[in-house]
Design a protein that fits this description.
730 residues, alpha/beta, GIY-YIG endonuclease, Rossmann fold, 6 domains, 21 helices, globular, binds adenosine-5'-diphosphate, binds zinc ion, metal-binding, DNA replication, primosome, EC 5.6.2.4
Length: 730
């Protein structure tokens, strides 16, 4: 082929297209689709990274074409299938080619990262002559016992040998230095875990998945129904067929048990791939996968894009979790990509959850895809009973504490029986709202339109959005009175109060603030597991995947916290969160119980959650979504517009919205413009426009270009962000 279409590594949206280059004689026959190459670009013909997307022999206007300069690596970095997926993502999530391509590559690649090489020592000729003396012999023998393990410096440091003696031995050929590729990832191994005898339900599910002609499966099973065992057996079956598997988990740091179980079962065939890895570590793991050294990836959503050649299985565990939606461009949904990828690569896709995402469930029903339900826990235990406490009633009974009388009593009972307790509140900090009772002044962050949270440990008021801190005060900065009061409740305050209420109990807290340091999460987790504490207080961090057999009571302090957000998914979230937190109780032989406190006892999400009635909730929720034309019945396109210059922003937003309504007002429902729920973050003012309806991707694409034109021309201080079916509308 004589010509190729390439995507050049360039951030500009205007350049989001294929550029045609000529393939010079000397490179013909060497260029392949998906290769990483260098091309001269722009006026100065600066060399830039680029990727070959298409190749052809015929082309018009060839006189002006530039030639590609070089091929960076023979082996393509993108496969045909990857490129198909990138094209689809560009359409569906309104991203650029380059944003799509970058998902498939380790960041280090474009920055010229190389594999890490260490110069290690080998023992060579036997010692003779004067080199047999002790000082040389001990060095020589150490190397002989540890061939290819140490570099010269390491050896010298570790055993206190003189570097010059080591060098002497090298110089005379007794020791030899060779290059060795080292892996930057710290390999932790876990004790071997034997297979379990599978239950009938597990066997049936596996049989169904392995033999069905279709690729899509929704595994709807209560917590503890043995889904993870099913995943592991599927992975094993794929290994037998020489195929690889990707297991996605919502957040690696919060699922240590999952990694432990997989590593225990499959050893070092696994990579654990997530955002906490350094650039170098990611680079190495990506190469290990590419070279076929890794058969299984467990990871966050980014693991979906690892370069496996013979993918057999993708599992998305806890598929309803919002961490599967990317919060940076492209704002893709990993569950959706998993299904598309399953189609492109012809591999099995298993989405697992006790509370499937409403849109997922609906999609499976509509397409007649297979939904496998497991309604019983493996050990036969029942899901714990959930008792609802109306907190308004508590107030009437003159109980002003955050603990209802019932929860207080149940906690005491468990403490006496030496059983463990989990207390859940989805908000951290001490007081979450500080205001002056005289003039009504509210303490807010000066960079963000967000009320500050008091943290007792630091004695400061914190902004949870930008990290701003100021010292706490009793004097109102507005009126000078000393009527400043601290309202609201966070996990820090709960711990403080519970320590007073239950002085004998040993209490741990797990939230963002207590798990900042490395290993803090694992320490809290293992302390609680080893019964070094009676009560664990935490945010949604404790809702996921934890399995503590001695927990017999879960207290949900305020079940309505997620309800009052302006988000069409808020009821769904509430349902999921209650079900998940409740699943932490009664996982062992002892019966569990959940006390759910709320100020909204009539809310349907809460009522259905009380009975674990997923289908009841689903039906009710679908009615509302349909009525309001929200997903899965319509699409929502969110246009977020930001600027530090508020006047320009308001002017620009209105002008744009006028134009948008003139074009599309008849076809779609256009809401706004209005300030976002959080109207300022980090000194950026924020407005939004929401488009609802059966939005066609072609229209979405045109709208995208309209917004970018606006932000580029007149309003160059305005930034825009687009989100199809957003998970965060605040
Ligand atoms: P899920 O992923 O659905 O929450 P798990 O796979 O974690 O369920 O299983 C819950 C518990 O039951 C785990 O402790 C697991 O080791 C155990 N388990 C799963 N399958 C079996 C089995 N077939 N026999 C015995 N124990 C099992
Ligand atoms: Zn005041
Ligand atoms: Zn702030």
């Amino acid at each position: 082929m004589k010509y190729c279409g390439v995507i050049v590594n360039n951030e500009s949206i205007a350049l989001d297209k294929l550029f045609t280059y000529r393939i010079p004689e000397n490179l013909r026959g060497f260029v392949e689709i998906g290769q990483h190459i260098k091309v001269p670009f722009g006026k100065g013909n600066k060399l830039k990274d680029a990727f070959v997307i298409s190749m052809f022999d015929e082309c018009e206007n060839t006189e002006k074409l530039k030639e590609i300069s070089d091929i960076c690596a023979r082996e393509p970095v993108l496969s045909d299938k990857n490129i198909r997926l990138i094209n689809l993502m560009r359409k569906r999530y309104l991203c650029t080619y380059l944003e799509g391509i970058k998902l498939f590559l380790p960041r280090g690649l474009l920055k010229g990262k190389r594999e890490k090489i260490k110069l290690v020592l080998y023992s060579n000729n036997e010692l003779h002559g004067k080199y047999k003396e002790e000082k040389y012999a001990s060095i020589y023998n150490t190397v002989k016992e540890n061939v290819a393990k140490y570099s010269r410096n390491e050896l010298s440091k570790e055993f206190d040998y003189s570097l010059s003696s080591i060098n002497t031995l090298v110089k005379h050929g007794f020791l030899e230095i060779k290059e060795q590729r080292v892996n930057r990832v710290d390999e932790r191994t876990f004790p071997h875990l034997p297979k379990k005898n599978l239950t009938m339900e597990q066997l049936i599910a596996i049989e169904e998945i392995m033999t069905s002609k279709r690729n899509e499966f929704l595994l709807h099973g209560v917590t503890g129904s043995g889904k993870t065992e099913i995943y592991m057996t599927l992975v094993e079956k794929m290994l037998e067929k020489g195929k690889q598997s990707i297991i996605l988990v919502p957040e690696i740091a919060l699922t240590p048990q999952m990694v432990e179980r997989f590593k225990g079962r499959f050893g070092k065939d696994i990579t654990v791939y997530h955002s906490k890895l350094s650039e170098g570590e990611k680079f190495d793991e990506w190469h290990r996968v590419k070279q076929g050294k890794v058969k299984i990836a467990i990871g966050a959503r980014s693991a979906l894009f690892l370069p496996f050649k013979e993918l057999g299985l993708i599992v998305v565990d806890e598929e309803h979790e919002s961490t599967y939606k990317s919060d940076s461009d492209p704002k893709y949904l990993a569950t959706e990509i998993a299904l598309i990828k399953g189609n492109i690569e012809n591999c099995k896709v298993v989405l697992g959850s006790a509370t499937p995402n409403i849109e997922t469930y609906y999609k499976f029903k509509r397409n007649f895809w297979k939904i496998i339900s497991i309604e019983k826990r493996v050990d036969g235990a029942e899901m714990p009973e959930i008792e609802l406490i109306d907190m308004r009633q508590e107030l009437e009974n003159n109980n002003k504490s955050f603990l209802s009388a019932k929860l207080y009593e149940e906690i005491n009972e468990r403490l006496e029986k030496k059983e463990q307790i989990i207390i859940f509140l989805n908000r951290r900090g001490f007081s979450t709202f500080i205001s002056c009772r005289k003039c009504g002044y509210v303490f807010k962050c000066s960079n963000c339109d967000i009320s500050l949270t008091y943290h007792q440990k630091s004695g400061m008021l914190h902004c949870h959005y930008c990290g701003y801190k100021e010292s706490s005060t009793k004097i109102c900065p507005e009126c000078g009175s000393n009527y400043v009061k601290y309202f609201g409740l966070g996990t820090e305050k709960i711990q403080d109060e519970m320590e007073k209420l239950f002085p004998k109990a040993r209490i741990l807290r797990m939230d963002h603030d207590t798990t900042r340091n490395k290993d803090a999460y694992e320490n809290i987790y293992s302390d609680f597991k080893n019964k070094k504490a009676d009560i664990l207080i935490g945010t949604q961090m404790i809702a996921k995947g934890l399995d503590f057999p001695d927990v017999t009571l879960v207290g949900i302090i305020a079940a309505d916290l997620t309800l009052n957000l302006p988000d069409f998914r808020s009821n769904e979230r509430t349902y999921q969160l209650i079900t998940q937190v409740s699943g932490r109780a009664g996982r062992g032989a002892k019966e569990g119980k959940v006390i759910l406190q709320t100020y909204s006892p009539d809310n349907y999400a809460i009522l259905y959650a009380l009975n674990y009635d997923y289908h009841g909730f689903l039906e009710e929720e679908l009615k509302i979504r349909e009525l309001m034309n929200y997903p899965p019945f319509g699409r929502v396109m969110m246009i977020n517009i930001y600027s530090e210059n508020e006047n320009m922003l308001i002017k620009g937003v209105h002008e744009f919205s006028h134009k948008l309504k003139a074009y599309y007002g008849g076809k779609y429902n256009i809401l706004g413009p209005c300030p976002s729920h959080i109207s300022k973050i980090k000194n950026q003012f924020r407005w939004q426009i929401m488009i609802k309806g059966n939005i066609e991707y072609a229209d979405a694409f045109k709208i995208k270009n309209m917004v970018y034109d606006m932000s580029k021309s007149t309003y160059n201080k305005i930034k825009v962000g687009l989100d199809m079916n957003p998970y965060n509308t605040l």
